[in-house]
Amino acid sequence: METAITAEGLRKRYGDHQALSGIDLSVPAGTILGVLGPNGAGKTTTVRILATLLEPDEGRATVAGYDLAKQPLQVRRNIGLTGQYAAVDERLTGRENIELIGVLLHLGRRAAKARAAELLEQFGLTDAGDRMAKTYSGGMRRRLDLAASLVARPPVLFLDEPTTGLDLTSRLALWGMIREQVDSGTTVLLTTQYLEEADQLADSIVVIDNGRVIADGTPDELKRKVGGERLEVSVADAVDLPAVIRTLAAVSPAVPVVDDETRTVSVPLTGGVATIASAAAGLETLGIEPEDFAVRRSSLDDVFLALTGQTGRAAASDTAGDGKEAGQGPVAAVSNSKQKEKEPA
Ligand SMILES: Nc1ncnc2c1ncn2[C@@H]1O[C@H](COP(=O)(O)OP(=O)(O)OP(=O)(O)O)[C@@H](O)[C@H]1O
Ligand SMILES: [Mg+2]
């Protein structure tokens, strides 16, 4: 397959801060690459370099077949960019915002108008199209911003945290719009802090931390790398947490992961059923009645936490169909998730 974006050894320093320490990427045409990383990892810096807004200190890249350093103009003609902060002109209407871009792109006034009408329709903004953008909600601004980046029908799209701050409904709507672009052949590089978003949208993922790629693969590959299944124990009372942590630490070679908010402790299920049995026995001895005791497949959250030591801004709890589907009840969950494991094979 043709490669739409390649990057080799991108490095960038701001003063004495090394923001990128050698980023390599390769994105096949017509696919979505999800770039994940904690705050300050270098995601926006990478996007800005690939979009020709910033020069790298070292390294080379091609976008849509053009060399970033030698053919920046061609690169610019073949990309769309929506930044981390929606860049719409507040005092213009939605329609005027899009038309203006068409005019700036030399589409001609008539074609710019037609394209604006088409995009407003596609992004559900026809009714609001003649209102000033300052009256738009956050979700509408994001949609307008994305629409504006598509005026020239660019084959490569950079989306820097396109759905940050949106509620779930708006996020799902935007995901649909992004998928439509990819279905029609567009290549997308998307940064996000919502792991659920990467899981749902991305064909492949790179995890960046401190300006380096620390892992890459498909969402499933990454989940497998971190270890298929986890034993997860929740308690109703936070007072019981230390005992649960000790119990799980005793049955697993890995350090238990603790979520204080949900009073949940989890470990990778390296020893299979024996681990489950010892954990259950250990809790029983201590007189702890878990609120939930379940086995579930690793989620992208686990991957992110294991790799970066930080939790992502995961949407796991507000979306159905994530890795938690197996976590119904103790015994059922075990057999359930075993069956699920076999399905893809
Ligand atoms: N113009 C700048 N001058 C100095 N330092 C900068 C500049 N832009 C970014 N940095 C630093 O470079 C590092 C990478 O920043 P970048 O914006 O690429 O991170 P990010 O992964 O996009 O983070 P976030 O998730 O918060 O958007 C950070 O430590 C940041 O403080
Ligand atoms: Mg950023």
What does this protein look like?
By secondary structure, this protein is α/β, with parallel strands linked by helices. The chain folds into two domains: 3-223 and 308-340, P-loop containing nucleotide triphosphate hydrolases (Rossmann fold), CATH 3.40.50; 229-297, Alpha-Beta Plaits (2-Layer Sandwich), CATH 3.30.70. Helices cover 37% and strands 24% of the residues. It has helices at residues 43-50, 72-77, 94-104, 109-122, 138-149, 168-183, 195-201, 219-226, 241-251, 273-285, 300-308, 330-342, and strands at residues 3-14, 17-28, 32-36, 58-63, 66-67, 79-82, 156-160, 187-192, 204-209, 212-217, 229-234, 257-259, 264-268, 292-297. It has a six-stranded mixed beta sheet, with helices on both faces. A four-stranded antiparallel beta sheet has the order 2-1-4-5. A four-stranded antiparallel beta sheet has the order 12-13-11-14. A hairpin with a 2-residue loop joins strand 9 (204-209) and strand 10. Helix 3 packs across helix 4 (109-122), helix 8 packs across helix 11 and helix 9 (241-251) packs antiparallel against helix 10. The longest helix has 16 residues, at 168-183. The two termini are 25 Å apart. The model is unreliable at 314-345 (pLDDT under 50). The structure holds adenosine-5'-triphosphate and magnesium ion. Residues 43-44, 84, 160 line the site of magnesium ion. Magnesium ion binds next to helix 1.
